[in-house]
Amino acid sequence: MRQIILDTETTGLEWKKGNRVVEIGCVELLERRPSGRNFHRYLKPDCEFEAGAQEVTGLTLEFLADKPRFDEIAEEFLGYIDGAELIIHNAAFDLGFLDSELSRLGPQYGRMLDRVSVVDTLLLARERFPGQRNSLDALCKRLGVDNSHRQLHGALLDAQILADVYIALTSGQEEIGFGEAEAASARPAAVVSFAPVAGERPRIVTVEAEREAHLRRLVHLRKKAGRAVWDEVEPVAEAEPLPA
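Structure (tokenized):
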């Protein structure tokens, strides 16, 4: 599956007020792994920044003066995203701005959803963590994603961080319900009893490669949630990190 993590920076909060896109950053994932084939462009907006927007992005009209306009990179951008699944945080914002940019080029360009499907990580996060803050920074803290280098908003940097957040949000221990250690520890332990099984129990024999794969998985789960359920039934020493 080809997925593209996408983020934009703009001159203000609303495209309906004439604000424009000033930066597009995309990170390509193939089978959920970064391919290294990213897309990043700064754009000349031909309009002023709204108050506060420059402070958020660190971009200025002087810096953007010699950058291409959206119409100059539109074909390249559309060729890059066509047919992909876009992963966007608060997708309505970015899609609204990109649709506005496309509309300036003429009706033949259509809308973003004519070309791609979209997954909104903000909606995913709200389903997973209802009632909690689900900004990108909040998710980084909750999911253990390092964003210490994020001093300003930047489209490519935020797309790279969002890629890590998306992977953490949709895989690993979080996916099977162990994502929040504090929530798990707050729940009373269930007591389950089983009736004795008549006859001899079947013996399962594993090969060394299967055992090592199992131990590596335990290491990954501990990093994600601080513990693994298997630790309760086998010694922790059995699952120490193995050499790569």
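The longest helix spans residues 208-225. Strands lie at 2-10, 21-30, 33-34, 39-42, 85-88, 117-120.
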